[in-house]
Recover the amino acids of this structure.
């Protein structure tokens, strides 16, 4: 490299760092300034909104672009985007801020940790006061494409969904009144909400604004650039021979994985009764039966996406399976083998006796690992407006250590 | 006698097919491949002119016994033709690219045979658009002979499929497809299974000795015509199955088929929907809407000629789906030839026979809910449960020549600029922002270095070298297609924020 080159690089870097660019607020410990650019994956439009751009937008869905299910080169379901960069960044602070819980001990990120695939590594979630929750914490990757939320599909929007854990006595334990009072009582938040919602009339922070901001942040968690995706977009060498064999087993009509874990999201977003049963002889979780008041849906749960699946062990709504291999093996151990005695479930027709060999199970696990992509993982803020310690992995570890003692 | 009268034209039909097949494929085998075309009739209005699959614009790859079909697929580019010569091939072929033709070459009656030896799952899997698969004998697989996931504009024809497990031919999530002149037997679910597709014609196929002959499931605009479905458990089915992402099944025409003696004992897998189908089922419409049944020859089906029902039929025990309407609505039964059906129906129907003082089961039976259905000339048949059916206003479906589209489903048009933008945001933006440091250097710095030099960017991202101590080395982006690399290089130089 000649000296001119070096000089120009140094100059350019100096230039770059001096340009107005406010996405690294941690540098400034005194004041919070919201990011004015979109997170990775999003284009900033002229009206200051963030629109998702993905390579899947090259494709037409066989079914009119609506459902987003199909094969390798299939369009995704309609995405929830169009939030402003400021709303997304504000959502990030709220997401990691324990001030959102009743006693300031847990945040959204306690159960949805970026380093654990936005789940928590536990069999089932742990709420306020270490309350053991009924079901596993689901990942948040790609929720922007979902139409239904919770294992039992009881919410139809992110806003609906977040009211669940926020106001559940076992989870974050706060109330609408307390939440508004807390957030309005923090001067930094009052400033930030003004930045994120500049057109509003009211001076007070509104509940809907909190919801919108968190939904904005959650919708920015996009994972669509795995090695599988590289293969899907036309690079044949992205997958090894073993992984390709796994892909073919995955989509074959013997294993039938792709029938419900349908590309490109690797979920068809339907409810399926697969006859999981519960660990430790716990009574059967009725799942969707309760939500839809429909007996035939007893034991039914939403088909989870498999993207980033290697990061979210243990598996299933009850965390019954410690390893991905055990989870995969469930499907070849006999239709209804785990259904508790006395239960008559309407098990999905795709659950059958595929008689997968051990080698086939291994290949499936190989393939599932190709669905990992965390290149757009957001940064945990170093500090949050409440002044509390932002929930981070360390904090969570502390809770777990306490639990074990 | 009736059966004989029926069999003779069918024999003639197949004889003509085989003769013409020989004419095309039986000669000097290294003659340049013809563009595949119909071989017993001229292409007419309803033919695959709107599909474009099989339009060979590229190279011809030859596969002979001892070499691998998949290897040829790996080398093939869109527009290429892969000719497979007689011999036995043990493999699973997967086609994840567009516009590929797999064409068996039948020589002196010798077929290329894909044999899964009951160890392999599927013979052919495809996800690309414009796939044509023809002239293959496929046997002894566990899952499917031919399964498509999301490929549009597909043609699957003249394949001879014997016991390939769960399904024979199974296009799924595809729009605009043709399945014709295939012969399938020994399948434990549906021999031809059209699942969650749109605009498909299924014609001139023979299906026998399967649990289900032809099944149209959660699909829209399907024409099932001129097929010979005999000796299955059930002949031709139109289903709306709950719990699938596609919530409707409608505009299905079942027309001019021979549906004969579908009395084979049900050997479907436990838990499958079709395992509940009573043997002796001619046509079964379950929860589908706007189905027209016209001009079929339906005879010798011991349970019932035509059964119209909701999805709680015969012990089918799906979990219900609030978004899926369970009744068969607006079913139109036009003139059909029906005779000798209902000789040995299931107990539920026998119970109905007692109330009807009938010694035989029905030609047509409707059970469960549903509205808006009609039947022409019901007095000509033994009918159960069609009292609320109106007299049809419609007399025929001749205006529907085909459900194929006039033109192939076009790929989504993406300009180079859009492609560059998508690639930049989908891939590059994880490490680069316009004017700040993420992991890699800011874009404005890159722009200054590579002003008017997109090729420099292409070269660098294809084969990066570690240039700067203060930044980590960039991983190669060679997995992006050449076009995408070019597009993104040019796009990056135009970015302004």
């Amino acid at each position: 490299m000649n000296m001119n080159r070096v000089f120009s690089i140094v100059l350019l870097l100096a230039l770059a760092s001096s340009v107005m660019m406010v996405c690294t607020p941690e540098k400034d410990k005194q004041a919070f300034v919201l990011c004015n650019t979109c997170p990775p994956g999003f284009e900033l439009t002229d009206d200051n909104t963030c629109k998702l751009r993905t390579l899947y937008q090259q494709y037409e869905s066989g079914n009119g672009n609506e459902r987003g299910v199909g094969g390798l080169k299939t369009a995704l379901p309609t995405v929830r985007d169009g939030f402003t960069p400021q709303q997304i960044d504000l959502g990030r602070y709220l997401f990691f801020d324990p001030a959102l819980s009743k006693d300031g001990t847990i945040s959204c990120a306690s159960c949805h940790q970026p380093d654990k695939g936005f789940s928590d590594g536990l069999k089932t979630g742990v709420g306020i006061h270490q309350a053991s929750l009924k079901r596993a914490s689901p990942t948040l990757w790609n929720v922007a494409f979902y139409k239904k939320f919770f294992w039992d599909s009881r919410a139809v929007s992110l806003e609906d969904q977040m009211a669940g854990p926020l106001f559940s006595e076992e989870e974050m334990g706060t109330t609408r009144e307390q939440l508004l009072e807390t957030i309005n009582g923090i001067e930094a938040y009052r400033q930030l909400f003004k930045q994120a919602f500049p057109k509003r009339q009211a001076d007070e922070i509104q509940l809907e604004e909190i919801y919108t901001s968190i939904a904005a942040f959650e919708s920015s968690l996009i994972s669509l650039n795995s090695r599988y995706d590289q293969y899907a977009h036309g690079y044949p060498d992205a997958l090894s021979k073993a992984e390709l064999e796994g892909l073919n087993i995955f989509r074959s009509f013997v294993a039938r994985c792709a029938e419900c874990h349908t590309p490109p999201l690797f979920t068809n977003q339907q409810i399926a009764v697969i006859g999981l049963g519960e660990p430790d002889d716990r009574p059967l979780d009725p799942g969707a039966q309760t939500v839809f008041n429909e007996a035939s849906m007893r034991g039914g749960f939403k088909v989870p996406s498999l993207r980033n699946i290697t990061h979210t062990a243990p598996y299933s709504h009850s965390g019954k399976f410690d390893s991905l291999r055990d989870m995969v093996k469930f499907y070849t151990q006999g239709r209804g083998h785990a259904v508790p005695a006395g239960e008559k479930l309407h098990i999905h027709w795709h659950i059958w006796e595929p008689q997968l060999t051990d080698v086939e199970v291994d290949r499936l696990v190989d393939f599932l690992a190709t669905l990992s992509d965390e290149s757009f993982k957001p940064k945990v803020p170093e500090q949050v407006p409440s002044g509390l310690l932002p929930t981070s992995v360390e904090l969570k570890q502390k809770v777990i250590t306490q639990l074990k003692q | 006698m009736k059966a004989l009268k029926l069999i003779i034209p069918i024999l003639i039909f197949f004889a003509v097919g085989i003769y013409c097949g020989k004419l095309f494929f039986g000669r000097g085998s290294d003659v340049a491949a013809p563009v595949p075309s119909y071989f017993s009739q001229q292409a007419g209005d309803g033919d695959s002119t709107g599909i474009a699959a099989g339009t060979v614009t590229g190279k011809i790859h030859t596969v002979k016994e001892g070499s691998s079909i998949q290897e040829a697929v790996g080398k093939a580019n869109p527009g290429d033709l892969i000719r497979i010569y007689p011999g036995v091939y043990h493999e699973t072929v997967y086609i994840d690219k567009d516009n590929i033709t797999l064409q068996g070459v039948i020589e002196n009656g010798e077929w290329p045979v894909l044999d899964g030896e009951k160890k392999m799952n599927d013979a052919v899997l495809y996800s690309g658009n414009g796939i044509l698969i023809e002239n293959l004998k496929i046997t002894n697989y566990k899952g499917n002979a031919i399964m498509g996931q999301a490929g549009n504009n597909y043609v699957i024809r003249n394949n001879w499929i014997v016991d390939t497990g769960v399904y024979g031919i199974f296009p799924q999530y595809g729009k605009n497809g043709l399945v014709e002149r295939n012969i399938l037997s020994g399948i434990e679910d549906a021999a031809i299974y059209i699942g969650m597709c749109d605009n498909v014609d299924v014609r001139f196929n023979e299906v026998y000795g399967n649990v289900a002959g032809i099944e149209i499931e959660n699909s829209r605009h399907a024409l099932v015509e001129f097929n010979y479905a005999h000796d299955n458990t059930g002949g031709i089915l139109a289903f709306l199955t709950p719990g699938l992402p596609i919530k409707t099944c409608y505009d299905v025409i079942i027309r001019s088929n021979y549906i004969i003696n579908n009395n084979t004992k049900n050997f479907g897998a436990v838990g499958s929907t079709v395992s509940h189908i009573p043997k002796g089922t001619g046509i079964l419409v379950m929860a589908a809407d706007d189905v027209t049944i016209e001009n079929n020859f339906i005879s010798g089906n011991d349970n019932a000629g035509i059964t119209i029902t909701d999805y709680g039929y015969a012990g089918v025990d799906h979990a219900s789906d609030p978004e899926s309407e369970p009744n068969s609505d607006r079913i139109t039964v036009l003139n059909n030839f029906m005779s000798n059906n209902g000789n040995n129906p299931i107990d539920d129907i026998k119970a109905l026979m007692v109330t009807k003082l009938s010694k035989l089961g029905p030609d047509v039976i409707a059970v469960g809910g549903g509205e808006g259905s009609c039947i022409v000339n019901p007095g000509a048949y033994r009918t159960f449960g069609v009292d609320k059916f109106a007299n049809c206003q419609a007399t025929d479906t001749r205006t529907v020549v085909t459900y194929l589209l006039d033109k192939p489903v076009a790929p989504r048009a993406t300009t180079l600029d859009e492609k560059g933008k998508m690639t930049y945001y989908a891939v590059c933006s994880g490490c680069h922002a316009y004017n700040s440091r993420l992991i890699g250097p800011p874009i404005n710095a890159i722009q200054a270095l590579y002003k008017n030099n997109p090729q420099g960017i292409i070269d660098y991202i294809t084969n990066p070298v570690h240039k700067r101590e203060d930044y980590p080395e960039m991983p190669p982006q060679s997995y992006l297609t050449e076009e995408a690399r070019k597009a993104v290089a040019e796009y990056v130089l135009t970015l302004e924020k």
In short: The beta strands of chain A are 42-44, 50-52, 271-273, 300-302. The longest helix of chain A spans residues 3-18. Chain A touches chain B through 82 residues (CB under 8 Å).
